């Protein structure tokens, strides 16, 4: 499958996905989306899903998932392999039909063809035709997007420059490394200045420089008012660019918020303590998960508001507390904790 704006992808993505009315581009729907009908276009959330569910036979890939993504934010959709991230994206883009629930994307119901023109999409697995040059791929997608011919050249140039492939524009895709192909996929998703850009694991094939570049592109999209929905299992990626994230597991959202909110009040605390007997941890494990680190005791997952009680308890156990250093929990630790709580 090749990346393109999602209306095109409906024609080529997986089997059960074809929306009513067939595939490919159609004439704009006269009814208009909520955005167009609204006296304040663009004020609806970028994505608003309620109870979204997708079953594949016995498998519940998406389980009554509710989610709101604001305009002009970078929203990270985090979850382990098989959590349902790609399936949610396919539902939101109208490439698969939900078994239950509903959602509005850019103010329009799922599958609205005109709205899909305003969504750029980089799928997680795709292949371009090897014989086409990068420019030809971009031009083809300009055509599929029904962009006016007069702006194709400018769109093509700006896309190639943004993804750092300007010098390679006339080379065939078959001669590109997989990272370069992924960049080109991103370039296609940027065509037509989409209001919403959906990126499914956009940096999986990229080297550190490429990852950095993609983060810059994502920030640039937000700065010009686009919303970015970023599927990733790379926490580092989320930490660098996301305004808010949802953690998804087994098709359910298990936490949503800013990264600070997600890390929450929990963190590790390092205590430099002398005088505690071997059984010290019996009394402290109700505050977090304790371990020894030389003269230090480290407790993971401590609620910050309980640090004074922790110190009091340590003293009561006979410890002499020489230093207390609260440390913010890493997103990874919190992520594992959230998944472990399930
Ligand atoms: N077309 C399909 N038919 C049957 N089961 C499917 C189909 N698509 C997805 N699933 C199942 O739905 C669940 C969620 O898959 P999905 O691809 O959405 O996960 P993901 O979070 O994107 O994972 P990854 O990080 O590996 O990309 C998995 O159990 C998967 O096997
Ligand atoms: Mg996936």
At a glance:
This protein is an alpha/beta fold. The chain is built from 13 helices and 14 strands.
Characterize the quaternary organization of these chains: single chain
- Percent strand: 25-35%
Query: How many β strands by DSSP?
Result: 14
Given the helix and strand composition, which structural class is it? alpha/beta
Number of helices: 13
**CATH fold field value of the largest domain:** Rossmann fold
CA-based shape: elongated
Mean pLDDT: 85
Euclidean distance between termini CA atoms: 35 Å
- CATH homology group of the largest domain: P-loop containing nucleotide triphosphate hydrolases
Can you tag this structure with a few keywords?
342 residues; binds adenosine-5'-triphosphate; four-stranded antiparallel beta sheet; binds magnesium ion; disordered N terminus; alpha/beta; six-stranded mixed beta sheet; Alpha-Beta Plaits; Rossmann fold
């Amino acid at each position: 499958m090749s990346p393109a704006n999602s209306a095109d992808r409906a024609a080529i993505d997986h089997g059960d996905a074809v929306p009513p009315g067939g595939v490919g581009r159609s004439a704009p729907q006269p009814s208009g989306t909520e955005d167009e009908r609204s006296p304040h276009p663009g004020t609806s959330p970028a994505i608003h899903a309620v109870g979204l569910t997708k079953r594949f036979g016995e498998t519940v890939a998406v389980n009554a998932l509710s989610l709101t993504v604001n305009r002009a934010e970078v929203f990270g959709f985090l979850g382990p392999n098989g959590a349902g991230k790609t399936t949610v994206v396919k539902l939101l883009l109208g490439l698969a039909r939900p078994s239950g629930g509903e959602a509005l994307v850019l103010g329009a119901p799922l599958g609205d063809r005109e709205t899909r023109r305003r969504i750029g999409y980089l799928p997680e697995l795709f292949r371009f035709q090897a014989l086409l040059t990068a420019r030809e791929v971009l031009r083809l997608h300009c055509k599929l997007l029904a962009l006016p011919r007069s702006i194709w050249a400018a769109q093509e140039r700006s896309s190639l420059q943004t993804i750092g492939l300007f010098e390679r524009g006339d080379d065939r895709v078959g001669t590109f490394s997989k990272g370069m192909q992924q960049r080109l996929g991103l370039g296609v998703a940027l065509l037509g200045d989409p209001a919403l850009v959906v990126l499914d694991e956009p940096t999986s094939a990229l080297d550190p420089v490429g990852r950095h570049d993609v983060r810059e592109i994502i920030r640039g999209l937000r700065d010009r008012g686009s919303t970015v929905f970023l599927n990733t299992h790379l926490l580092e990626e989320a930490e660098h660019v996301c305004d808010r994230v949802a953690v998804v597991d087994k098709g359910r959202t298990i936490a949503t918020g800013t990264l600070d909110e997600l890390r929450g009040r929990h963190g590790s605390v390092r205590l430099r303590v002398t005088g505690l007997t071997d059984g010290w941890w019996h009394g402290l494990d109700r505050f977090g998960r304790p371990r020894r680190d030389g003269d230090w005791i480290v407790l993971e997952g401590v609620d910050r508001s309980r640090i004074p009680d922790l110190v009091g308890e340590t003293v009561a156990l006979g410890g002499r507390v020489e230093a207390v250093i609260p440390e913010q929990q890493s997103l990874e630790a919190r992520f594992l904790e959230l998944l472990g709580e399930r």
